[in-house]
Every structure is written in C-alpha cells, then in structure tokens.
Amino acid sequence: MIAIVNYGMGNLRSVQKAFETVGLEAVVTHDPEVLKASEGIVIPGVGAFYDAMENIKTLNLEESILEEVSKGKPFLGICLGMQILFDHGYEVEKCQGLGLVEGDIVKIPEGRKVPHMGWNQLNINQESAILKGITPGTNFYFVHSYYAKCHQDVVVASTDYKMDIPAIVQKDNVWGIQFHPEKSGKSGLKILKNFGELI
Question: What is the pTM of this model?
C-alpha cells in the first residue's frame, strides 16, 4: 500500500486515481500510523513552499515522514512535494524544507515566462529505475514558478527552459519529480508504475 500524504494542498485524488489506474493500492492520509504501515510514501502538491511546510508542521507530519525515510522506505515527492524535499525554499519568505536532498528552491530567473507551464521534453542525465521504459525526449507536463538549485549528482533528468531545470532528482530511497506524472498521459503513468515496482 502506498500512502499519499494529505497536508491540505494538492490534487490528491488525481494522484490516487493515477496509481489505481496502474494497479497500485494508494490511500490518502495524514495519519502517522498509516504512513508507518505503508510500503511507500508519496507527497504530491500544488501551491507555495512556505504554506506546505507550515501545514506539515501543524499536522505533526514532519517527524513521521523523516522517520519512515530513514528506514529506507521508497519516497516520492511530486511538484511542490519534490520542492519541499530540499533544504530551503524562498517562496513567500525563506523557509526550511525537509532537508532530504541538498539544495534550495529558488524562483525561475527573469527572461523566461513564469510560471513554466506546459509540455516539455525530458533529458535523461543518468540511469534510474524510476525511468524504466522512458526514452529521452519524452514530453511531460510542468506547472511551476520555482525550481531546484542543486548538485548535478542528484539530477536524474532535466528539461530545457532556456536553462537546465531539474525534472527528476534522486538521493538513495528518495525521488522527486518536478512535473505532474498524473497529468502526463501514458508516460506519466509509467513513471508512477515504476515507483510502485521499487517497493
């Protein structure tokens, strides 16, 4: 069973339906006991970094999330859920994230349309089980105004937006996806299925 963390932000049901479409059981929850009983954890999200972290702390979820990750449980962050994996975010005001991946979430620089919205090609930087069956140049659906400024060694895949924007990051048992797999057709579903196979 995959636990989808409900912290009051994001399209939780559409992510749940996407997992169900590929034959994976997924429950939406903010119960630490359900997180503990799960075989994998997913944090989706739409909105601001600061609000997300405030909600996670208010619901007393931060400790449970970090504890389950430390056990080696497969963990996936989607869009805003990916961004809060990092050390700090600068949306609204500087805010501490979960600190699972080294780096900061900063605004997309001037000279590019913000938000970055629409279909963009994936450039694959390194092999990862999350990308099984995905070929370079496959399009995925992005919607975001901030991006991960991080070390290249954690960047599994990127997209070109007049700069390289990390599209998938990985550190040990933690994966982050900047685009929305649940809105990216068959290729997005394939990535969610790949995550399920990591469990």
Answer: 0.96
